[in-house]
Each structure stands twice: as C-alpha cells, then as structure tokens.
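ok posting inputs for the zinc ion job
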Amino acid sequence: MNRGLIIICWLMIFTGIAKGDDVKIVFDKYYEVTAEKGDGIYSLLRKYELDGFSCNFNQFYELNNLKKNAPLFIGKKYTLPILVYRFNGKTIRSTIGVDNWDLAVRIQDYNNRMFEAKIKPSAFRSDMELWVPFHELNCPDADLKIPKPDEPPAEPESGELTAAMTTMNTTSGKRNFPIFGPKYAYTPLTSTKLKGKVFYIVAGHGGPDPGAIGKKGKYRLCEDEYAYDVALRLCRNLIAHGATAYMINRDINDGIRSEKYLECDDDEVLWGNIEMVASQRERLFQRSNVINALWESNKKKGVTDQKMIVIHVDSRTQGKQIDLFFYYKPGDEKGKEFAAHMQKTMKQKYAQYRDYHGTISSRSLHMLRETKPTSIYIELGNIRNSRDQQRILLESNRRALANWLFEGLVNSAK
Ligand SMILES: [Zn+2]
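and the output
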C-alpha cells in the first residue's frame, strides 16, 4: 500500500468516527393532531400515509398510551408517528443524518404531497419543519400485518346492490358509497348536470389477472391497481354530479388510495359480487355480460344516454413514452365522436403544461366489440416507461387524470 492510499484510508476512518461522535442529530418532536369527527386510528394514519406499516400503528399506540383499536375522542390531541426535524436549509440527508439518497427523495416527496394535500400547513423549505414518517427510519418495508380497519361501513351483500345502485342517481339518500373507501365514501351532490345519464366504469384486468407489470426500484406496479384508482376517482366525480355510475370491477377493501405504490392484490370481483373465473376469454364475457344486462335494464327504464369507459395502462418497451390515448370500436361513429371529445378536452387540459399527443384509433377489442353502450377504451400511458410511471404513481396525477376525463365526459354529454 503506498503512502497516499494509507492517508486516504486513514482520513475515511477518521471522518467516519468524527461523524458518528460529534454530529448528534436529534429530531425536535413528534407531530401532534387533534382528532376530528369521524377519525379512527386507521383512517387517521391513512390520511398521513402511515397505514401501510404495522410499526407505525405500534408506535402510535405506544406514544398515546392506547390499546389496539381503541377509540379516539373528538377534540383530544394525539401524537402521530411522524418525526419533526428542524430543516437545516441545506439537504434532507444532512438534516436527518443519513446518506441514503432514495430515502431523502421519498421524504421530500412525502413532505410535498402532504403540503399539496393541505395536510401539512406549510412547505418544509418555508417553515423549516421536515416531516419524517416513523417507518422510514425504523421499518421501511411495507407489510401486511395491518390491523383491520373498523371504521368503514359494511359493503352491501349482492342482493342489496340494486338498492345501492338506485341511490346513485338520486339527489336524496345518505350518499354513502363504501366502495370509495372510508375517506371518500361520503360523496356530496355538487350538481345535477349529469342526472339521468348512465356510465359504466371498467378498470382493466383485476381478480386473477393483474394486467401488465411495471417495475420501479424494488416495487412491482400492477396495471389493474392503477387503472382501478383512476377509475374510482372518475366514478366518484360522476356520482357527485348526479350521474348513475357503476364501478364494474370492485375491490371492497381498496377504496381511493393516496399512496404512490399500490399493493397488488387479486380480490376484485365484478358488479353483483361475481367472482372472476380463471379463463381470460370467459372472464371478459363475464364482464361484458354484466354490462349488457345493466344496459338492457336501464334502457327499459327509459335511459337514453349510456356510456362505457374502459381504463387500462399499456405496456410497451421501456424507452417509449406515450400520452394517454383512445380506442373505439371499428366502424362505430358514435364511439369515434366520443373519443374525439375526450381527446379535445385532454389537449386543452394539457395545454397549460405541455403539448399533448394522445391518439385515437379503432381496435377490435372484446370490451368494445361485445358491449352495448357507446364506448371508449383508454390507455393511460406506458407502465414500463419511467416518465409515464409518474403519471400513475403520484396521487396528484391520478386525481388530475380522473378530473380531466370527467370534464371530457361532461363535454361529450353536451
Ligand atoms: Zn390492460
């Protein structure tokens, strides 16, 4: 070993020790919140994106001296498993004393999301308060041993689904739709502009079929989960404006989710609690049969405007970036016009950020060919392309997609 190398090694060891001994980084406090009406432990932790990690729950019980599943009291202060650090104005890594770049990026994204969602009062660069979720430093792997939420009201049995359905197009009723999850189940009526119109919202794949799989770091991205989240948000928008909207694929325990990485599961069923069969061909017929039966029954009731929106995420080679695009049934002029309205709205919405190049073309796909409503089939992007992944990974983007598609539907209903 030459002298230069020895010096370098010595320096490395020395600075290593110095770092550990001299620079003690301590967080200021845990973040506190006051419980509001309707808060439960699960929904509270979910709101702060802490619900995917059992260590957050354990820490919450410990910090607040609570037993598992204890009730919360309105107006009482509770300590959340979020460590508040005083941001040093330089980097997140030096603020919390880690050198893990990915971790720092996750924490930055978390703070930004919390601020955008108006959950964190100010941005960490302005109030110098950096939030670090407990699990990030203690148990970064999401796990499945999560206490079952006891807040969400039970989903109706299949026999009662029709009753639940009738409440969807009325201006009265409790307007509680458990399918959207505890935080979003209550869907106030904000307008009646879509009253009398029927929409079938179909999230691609589901059940035994996750659809295309993308990869991002150590995470698997399942097409069906992302399509489902956008579909749910779109469906909720429609119901809020007086439409009758059916979520054809249903996952009773998923609801609208805020996290970036949506867990892949296979417990989705079809409208009417129909379990999906293993064969792909039969599964597609199960789906089109459900829609056609509803279409017939709504037609008999005198409904004249019935549309279907199928939502997927495409899979191309990794390098291929694609904008959201549309398919319609070959030879279907109404479908083509429907797609054109939607494309026009997307173009207008994108214009404030960049050019939009989403295409329209016809394609003989089962769901377009075998179903009766006027329909379009949407591909949100390429699940393997890192730029397109951002479109479905970030909650704010999934929300924007659903809002824009909703506006497209309003425009095409005019
Ligand atoms: Zn697909």
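notes: The longest strand covers residues 77-86. Residues 204-205, 211-212, 223, 312 surround zinc ion (CB under 6 Å).
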